[in-house]
Amino acid sequence: MNPTPDAGGRGLAGVVIAVDGPAAAGKGTLARRLAAELGLPYLDTGLLYRATGRRLLDAGADPRDTLAAEAAARSLSPADLERPDLRGPEADRAASAVAAIPAVRAALLDWQRGFGRTHGAVLDGRDIGTVVFPDAPVKLFVTASDEERARRRWLELRGRGVTAELPAVLADLRARDAQDAGRAVAPLKPAADALLLDTTALDAEAAFRAARALVAERLGL
């Protein structure tokens, strides 16, 4: 996928930047800021799976039910992605469960590709660089230690008024990691040509500067 000149002269129209990594590594914050910096649309693909899982929870259905999960994925609307209850341990577990179902991933794959191909985009998720856009010119894999990611998620939950114990958050995070990495379809792993970024010791600003430098080097900006 080759850049074509955009209105701002950056030459980034049509470029897709894939940002993958486990939960609470900071990939969402990075991807959102990169999109704003580069003038590209942004998509948090994890919201698609979270919204699918939430639809099932609302209906009292099992997120592991293949038929129900596929139906929920195919019936998503933009409004589903704006719900305020798509974060938290319950939503995390439901999202991980539906993401392991091949029919759900197939239902959402075209949606993601269509979004990125329209004008280019920065997309974050778990399989953007390996499955959704394996030909993306820039692929970042953002990670951090389990303990640091759990601390960040715990602070995020506290900030939203959600009561949670740090050991439980760490256990939930590790369980989700294992499920995401061990699923048969589109497991969580870096693409062979992904640029690795460990944010364990970086604050948000330092992580953004490091990511921006990696993107600029890969794109020759």
Q: At the fourth CATH level, what is the homologous superfamily?
A: P-loop containing nucleotide triphosphate hydrolases
Shape: globular
Strand-residue proportion: 5-15%
- The stretches of 5 or more residues where confidence is low (pLDDT under 50) are 1-9
**CATH hierarchy, class:** Alpha Beta
Order of helices and strands: EHEHHHHEHEHHEH
Strand order of the largest sheet: 2-3-1-4-5
CATH architecture: 3-Layer(aba) Sandwich
Percent of residues in helical segments?
40-55%
Give the beta-strand count. Answer: 5
Oligomer: single chain
User: How many distinct folded domains?
Assistant: 1
End-to-end CA span: 16 Å
The number of helical elements comes to: 9
Helix- and strand-based class?
alpha/beta
Gyration radius, rounded: 17 Å
Arithmetic mean of pLDDT: 90
Largest sheet features = 5 strands, parallel
CATH topology: Rossmann fold
